Amino acid sequence: MAMSFEVLRVGHTYRMRNYDDVREFTVVRRLSDVNFLVQDKATLEKFELEDLVRYGRGKDYDLDEINSHGDII
């Protein structure tokens, strides 16, 4: 079951799947109740989390917290 954006915590790492696109990111800063500045773990690019779901959520949408070993918590 996917987590809600409201429970994301600064400094923690998450994996999001949406429309077959899988991203791992770390939350850098909270911008609003449901939007965050995040940093992609692979590219180190910073962007707003809202940009990942701008066009909606697919049937495969999932958001999970992951630990430093890449395991879902």
Word description of this protein:
- With 73 residues, this protein is mainly beta.
- It is 0% helix and 40% strand.
- It contains no helices and five strands.
- The chain has a five-stranded antiparallel sheet, with no helix packed on it.
- A hairpin with a 2-residue loop joins strand 1 and strand 2 (21-30).
- The model has no long low-confidence stretch (mean pLDDT 91).
Notable traits:
73 residues; mainly beta; five-stranded antiparallel β-sheet; globular
SSE topology:
Elements: E1 13-18, E2 21-30, E3 36-40, E4 46-48, E5 62-66
Antiparallel strand pairs: 1-2, 1-5, 2-3, 3-4
Strand content is 35-45%
Average pLDDT over all residues: 91
Strand order of the largest sheet: 4-3-2-1-5
Low-confidence stretches: none
What string, H for helix and E for strand, traces the elements in order?
Answer: EEEEE
Report the count of strand segments.
Answer: 5
Distance between the termini: 12 Å
